[in-house]
Amino acid sequence: MAEKSVFLLEIGTEEIPAGYIGPALDMMARQIEDFFRNNRIGFEKVETAGTPRRLVLVAHGVDMVQEPAVQEITGPPYSIAFTPDGKPTKAAEGFARGLGVSVDELQVKDTPKGKYLFFVKEEKGRSTKELLAEYLPDFVAHIPFPKSMRWGDQTVTFARPIHWIVALLGDEVVPFSYGDVVSGRHSKGHRFMKPDVISVPSDFDEYKKILRDHFVIVDRNERKEMIRSSVKALAESLGGIVVEDEDLLDEVTHLVEYPYPLVGKFEEKYLELPPEVPITVMKEHQRYFALTDARGKLMPYFITVANTVPRRPEVVAQGNERVVRARLEDARFYYEEDKKIPLEKRAEELKNVVFHSKLGTSWEKVERFRAVAKWLSDQLQFDESQNAKLMRAALLCKADLVTGMVSEFPELQGVMGRAYALHQGEDPDVAEAIYEHYLPAKAGDVVPSGIIGAVLSIADKIDTIVGCFGVGLIPTGTADPFALRRQTLAIIRILLEKELPISLVSLVRNTIPGLRKWITEPENTVIEGVIQFFKGRLEHYLQTHYGYPIDVIQAALSVEIDVLVNDVKRIAALSEFRKRSDFNALATTFKRVVNIIKEPVEIAVKPELFEDDAERELWKLIQDLRERFRTWEQERNYGRALEEFASLRPAVDRFFDAVLVMAKETEVRNNRLALLSTLKSLFENIADFKMIQTEV
Asked: Which of helix, strand or coil describes residue 542?
C-alpha cells in the first residue's frame, strides 16, 4: 500500500476583503484536486479554511509518490519495419531512435489491422513533494481575485501582500518561493491578541487547536456558528430576535479571525423611519445585525462583531453608536425632505436621467414597459380596477430613483418608492407593486406576491433584456454587466411560480415596437437571440432546481419554448414517462419513425392502397387515437397522451416487421410514408425523441 500523508498549505497575508475569501478557497480546492488527478497522485479528500489573514488548504490521504505510468507506443506495421528475411528497415530504426532505444527493445503485437511494432514505455513515479514544489508557485499565482495587487518591488501579485507561507507534506516542508516569501513551517497568531510565531504541526486538527489557542478560529463553519450562536444569545438577553440575513452572516464571518459580539443602541426617533432604512444602513454600511421584538417590530439596538476581545467593550460600542447615528441622521434628513415632493412630480425628473446611452432615458424606459405591462394585463384579462392600479404603479415605480434617500442608499430603491407612495395616499396595491417590481432581486429571492407587481416586474425586465439584445449588449462568458441572466431567470421564475399562461414569443414580439427607435439589430435576430437566451437559462434552471434530466429538457424544448407553464408540464410528463421499464424499446421504435420521416409527407393516406393487415391495424389505431390525443394536448394532459402513445408500439413494431416502407411502387411507398408521417404528427409536439438518451 502506498505511503500517505497530509498536505497543508497556509498563505498568510494582510487583510483580504471578505468577498474574496469564499470564491478563492473554492477555486483552490478545485485546482489542487485537478493537479493531483492530472499527476497520478492519489488523495482522499480536500478541505479549506480561512480568515481575512490566511487562506488554508488541506489534502488528506495524499500519496507520497505518484503512480508509475505505462505507455504503449505503436509504431509502423511489421511488414514495413522488417524485410522478408527479418532485417530492420529504416522505418524500424527511425522508430527506435525517436524513442531513444535499440531495435532489439521493440516488440511485435497482433492487432485487428495486422502485426505492428510497439514499445512499452514505463515512467517511474516521482516524489509528490518534488512535484508540489514545482507546481505551487503557479498555483498561488492563479488563485483568482476580483482585483490583485503588487507590493514593494515585487513582480508577483495577490489579493493582498503575502507575509508568510506554510507548506507541509507530512512533517516535511515543501520548498518553494513566491516573490520574496519562502515557504516554511511557521505561521502567526492573531495580529493583536497573540501575534506569536507558531510552528505548524502536520495534523489538521492539532493545527486548528494551536491557532485557536492563539485567538484564530480558522475553520469558517466553526467561526460562522460561533457568531450565529453568540449574536443570538446576546439578542435574547435584550428580549430581541436577530433579523436573519445569511449573506451578512457570511460576510462578517470573513471579516474576523476571533469574533466577539457587542451591543450598541441608537435613539428611538430613528424607529420612525421605514424599518428597512435602519436595517439597510446598519447592514450595508456598518455590517451590524438588527434586532426585532417578538412581534417583528424593529428595536433600537444592534449587534456588531469585533475582531478582538476589547478591554473596555462599552467604549468600542459607543464608537460604533456614533458612526451609525451619523448615518441614520443622514437617512432621516433625506426621508423628511423626500416626502415634500410627490412621486408623480419625481417621475417627471426621469426625463433627465439616462437609462443607457443606447436605450434612452429612464422616462422613455417607463413609457416602454408601461405598454408591455398593458399588453400583459390584456392577456391575463385584468379588470378595470387592476388595469388602473397597474398603470399607476408603472408610472411611479422608478420615481424613487431621483430621491435623496435612494441616491444616498441605492439598496433602498423600491423600498422607498413603496414608503413614499403610502405616505402620499396611494392605493396599497399600487405601493406594494412599486416595491415588488424589483423582485426577485437576487438568487433565491422571492417572486412578487401580487399579480400587479408580477406583471410590472416582467414588463420592466423584458424591456431591458430585449433592449440590450437589440443594441448588441449581449452577455459573453462571465461578463454580464446588465445582469441579463439574472433578469431572465427572474421572468422564468415569475411565470412558473405564478403559473401565468403567457406566450414568451409573443411577449418578446410585443416588446419590440417600443424599442424600434433604438435597436440596431434585425428584429428577427433579436427575437431569436432572446428566445435562445431564455432557453439556455430555463434548461439550467429546470435541471438544477427541479432535477429533470437534461436530455429530456432539451428534447421537449427543441419542439417548442413558448408558454413556460405548459412547457414544464410536458417536461414533467416526459420525465415520468421515461421511468417506464419499456421506455428504451418505445424510444427506439419511435426514433425509427422519426428517422424515416425527415420531412412531413403532404398527401392523404389512402387505405385502399394497404397491402398488409399490419398497415390496416396501425391506421385504425391512429384514427381512433388522433382526436383524443389532440384533446389531451389541449388540456395539457401530457401524461395521458404519452401513455396512449405508448400503446401504439406493438402495432408499429408489427408494421415494420410486416412491410417494406420504401416499396418499389411509388404510390405504395408514398402511402406508407404518409401513414408514418401522420403517426409522427401525434407526438412531434411533445418532444423530439431522437434527443433522448437510451440505454444500449
From this structure: helix
